[in-house]
Amino acid sequence: MKHRIVVLGAGYAGAHAAGRLARRLHPGDVEITLVNADPDFVERVRLHQVAAGQDLRHRPLADVYRGTSVTVRVSRVTAVDVGRRTVDLVDGEIGYDTLVYALGSTAAVHGVPGVAEHAYHLASRPAALRLRERLSELAEGASVLVAGGGLTAVEAATEIAESRPDLDVAIAARDGVGDWLSDKARRHLRDVLDRLGIRVHEHTGIVRVDEDGVATGGGERIPATVTVWAAGFTTHPIAAATALEVDGTGRIVVDATMRSVSHPDVYAVGDAAVAGGVGGKPLRMSCASGIPMGWQAADAIAARLTGRKVPAKPIPYVTQCISLGRRDGIVQLVTPDDRARSSAVTGRMAARIKEFVCAGAGWSIAHPTVLLPSRRRRVVPAGRSPLPTT
User: Fold this and answer.
1) Residue 163 three-state SS
2) What is the pTM of this model?
3) pLDDT digits over 326-338, tens only?
């Protein structure tokens, strides 16, 4: 009987894990099923572009994995039973021997009243399309407030301001906007925000969102025709409802190989997992973490199934790439444990680097059989020596 591997979620982490498993393992020994609610691969790091009115290339998963040992099943996951080793879907049930949990994250409300009813977000393609439609309805002079001071908020605010210079765009952050960046990068960010006419409200906690603006913890009010909620991400509640060990945010706790610390037949990658990086610092929710986490899990699964040494090196960071519209950006050099170095690339060159990185990530998803490794090894029973590869 073939070993059944089920990958839940085809974001950057899950899609890369599935493709790498197909390149690592002999198709005669495994069945790899990739479950995803959307029939297409969604470039989540570009959803601010979608919201601003730009069209992205469609990448149907059925086409991506055609000719590989990966079977795509378009369905939504409703529950996971780690005791029975089954996954409940809206249209049935699927069993597994090894599970790769990569269901990602959604917008974090943080308990703020009115966010769900009145704010827009960028955590999914449908959400980005809803925001796109709403922005297209706005007349000249309408106001847009982006809540948050991190990467998503900065990219959304600058993209909207650049594409719609007729709108009054503002950004509000509980702490500072871009305050994790180096001095050089922060100065450039400030210059771009000023150039695009984006008003900045720092150290401004939002305590309520309504249909025409927000209320702050300081008793002030910021009016907004549209509020975009970009104040962080949280995991889907599915994992927390299982017997899997999760942290306080619902992320699955994994070891250095992305294997669940409570259930050895389950691996978790991307935003759905909490894993230690260089120096033990938890990896942040990002594409920069998700892709190597997917590689790490796939390599560990393949190694264990084929009786080879299991790789378990911590995942390091190199840069943080930030787009500031289509013609400007920041590439912040960081330490392996993700602290900003003094060096940064800014301006048009940074925008080109960011575009190259995003395009490269999309290309690698669309060509799962091209990249190395492509040596498909045979699965061996536990305790036996590896069989010859073909």
Assistant:
1) helix
2) 0.93
3) 999 999 999 999 9
